[in-house]
């Protein structure tokens, strides 16, 4: 029986994926004895992990609440659920584009200010103010999308459907992602050029040491005057004082963000949402189901898919084999090492890979594994059987 602890509220649809081989516990008061943890946004950096912890799955995309490297050093595989909430974020971005183009935030506030007015002609009176909120259409405008992953691709394709000219910026885009992009999306290699051409900018790149503060005064100075800037990715990507300067100078006419900070809340030129991007029933179900399946596949079969600190390795379902899962550090050839460690066994399948300095090898055998050789490069070994 594996114990799985939940931090945050995890969708029942995800918890229902776990079979009778799992005990689900609320981890708010401690996660000791757990083989897996399901988490959403709770910060785990200061948490203590005991030896039983094998895996953490983040029901969502961003993993900056999890100490990835110290987990890797302890042989704890961390998963996320790429793409599971992408449609939810895309739909909110489409909503934000329409909101910005048609001044909906101000127009709705204007209308609501008439609450309690007893006039028989309220409709006409409200309508008298409408010229102040006259907007523009999205069709024919240019948007640049920074980050062409699960969300960015959907945003690009939705913007194409809205009749917009779409520029994509992502120096690391892979072939599978590129193939999912509408053919009309123009890839731009220079962020400053994308900004200079765009009426709208939408960020969909991760918060990393290399991207935090990327939208600083220098880069923002290239933006087309009056552009509308959408950030449904992470607040850290933006140098906030540079954004405020850009708003005050009119370089950016409106900043729509999913992340509240003291500096921007309440500004006339900012629309700030309470991190609503993935807050749909469907996204929460999708993320939790994917997270549960990733943990079960790892614990039962040894397969790693969608990990953020270990490579993808998949031998399919375990069947009636014995499997040995080997986590390594500073070993460029984990498969060779695993084969050498169990050279006296009848190995029926083997796979493995590295990710940075960490590696993983999974081998299948018909033999019993009674002893595990000690090797300095090996951080953790698990023997899996279906018994
Ligand atoms: N508002 C919300 O509720 C919400 C919900 C989900 C995700 N997010 C945020 O959205 C981000 C993107 O999510 P996703 O699912 O599309 O992730 P993803 O990993 O599928 O895509 C991220 C893309 O960014 C690209 N990238 C990395 N560094 C870059 C750089 N310097 N310049 C341009 N592109 C770069 C990557 O190559 C990748 O294609 C997440 O990291 C998260 O911070 C927010």
What is the distance, rounded to the nearest whole angstrom, between the alpha carbons of the first and last residues? 11 Å
Question: Which stretches are poorly predicted, pLDDT < 50 over at least 5 residues?
Answer: none
Strand content: 15-25%
- The helix count comes to 12
- In the sheet with the most strands, the strands line up as 8-7-6-9-10-11-12
Helix content: 25-40%
- What compounds sit in this structure? nicotinamide-adenine-dinucleotide
Shape, principal axes of CA atoms: elongated
**What does the main sheet amount to?**
7 strands, parallel
Radius of gyration: 25 Å
Structural class: alpha/beta
Order of helices and strands: EHEEEHEHHHEHEHEHEHEHEEHEHEEE
Number of strands: 16
Instruction: Calculate the mean pLDDT score and round it.
Output: 96
Structure in a nutshell:
By secondary structure, the chain is of the alpha/beta class. About 30% of the residues lie in helices and about 20% in strands.
Architecture overview:
- With 387 residues, this protein is of the alpha/beta class.
- It contains twelve helices and 16 strands.
- It has helices at residues 12-15, 68-73, 86-101, 104-112, 122-127, 150-161, 175-180, 191-197, 217-220, 240-248, 281-301, 334-341; strands spanning 2-6, 22-26, 36-39, 55-58, 77-79, 142-146, 165-169, 186-187, 200-203, 227-231, 252-257, 270-272, 322-329, 347-355, 358-365, 378-384.
- Strands 8-7-6-9-10-11-12 form a seven-stranded parallel β-sheet, sandwiched between helices. A five-stranded parallel β-sheet has the order 2-1-3-4-5. A four-stranded antiparallel β-sheet has the order 14-15-13-16, with helices on both faces.
- Strand 6 (142-146), helix 6 and strand 7 form a beta-alpha-beta unit.
- Helix 3 crosses helix 6.
- The chain starts with a strand and ends with a strand.
- The protein binds nicotinamide-adenine-dinucleotide.
């Amino acid at each position: 029986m594996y114990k799985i602890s939940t931090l945050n509220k995890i969708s029942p649809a995800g918890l229902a994926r776990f079979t009778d081989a799992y005990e689900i516990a609320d981890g708010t008061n401690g996660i000791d004895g757990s083989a897996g943890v399901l988490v959403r946004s709770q910060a785990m950096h200061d948490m203590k992990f005991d030896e039983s912890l094998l895996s953490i799955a983040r029901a969502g995309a961003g993993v900056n609440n999890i100490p990835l490297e110290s987990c890797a050093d302890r042989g704890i595989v961390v998963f996320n659920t790429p793409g599971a909430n992408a449609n939810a974020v895309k739909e909110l971005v489409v909503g934000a584009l329409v909101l910005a183009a048609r001044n909906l935030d101000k127009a709705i506030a204007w209308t609501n200010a008439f609450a309690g007015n007893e006039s028989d002609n309220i409709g006409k009176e409200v309508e008298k103010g409408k010229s102040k909120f006259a907007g523009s259409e999205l069709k024919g405008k240019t948007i640049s999308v920074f980050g062409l992953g699960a969300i960015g691709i959907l945003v690009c394709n939705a913007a194409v459907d809205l009749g917009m000219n779409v520029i994509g910026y992502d120096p690391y885009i892979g072939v599978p992602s590129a193939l999912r992009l509408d053919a009309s999306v123009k890839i731009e290699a220079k962020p400053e050029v994308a900004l200079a051409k765009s009426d709208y900018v939408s960020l969909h790149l991760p918060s990393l040491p290399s991207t935090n503060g990327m939208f600083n005064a220098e880069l923002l100075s290239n933006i087309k005057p009056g552009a509308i800037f959408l950030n449904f990715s992470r607040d850290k990507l933006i140098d906030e004082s540079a954004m405020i300067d850009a708003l005050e100078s009119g370089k950016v006419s409106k900043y729509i963000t999913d992340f509240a900070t003291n500096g921007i809340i309440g500004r006339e030129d900012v629309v700030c949402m309470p991190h609503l991007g993935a807050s749909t029933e469907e996204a929460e179900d999708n993320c939790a189901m994917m997270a549960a399946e990733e943990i079960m596949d790892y614990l039962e079969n040894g397969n790693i898919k969608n990990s953020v600190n270990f490579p993808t390795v998949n031998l399919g379902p375990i069947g009636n084999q014995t499997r040995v899962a080997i986590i390594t550090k500073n070993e460029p050839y984990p498969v060779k090492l695993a084969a050498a460690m169990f050279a006296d066994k009848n190995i029926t399948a083997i796979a493995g890979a590295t990710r940075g300095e960490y590696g993983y090898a999974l081998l299948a055998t018909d033999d019993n594994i009674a002893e595990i050789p000690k090797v300095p490069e090996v951080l953790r070994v698990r023997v899996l059987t279906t018994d």
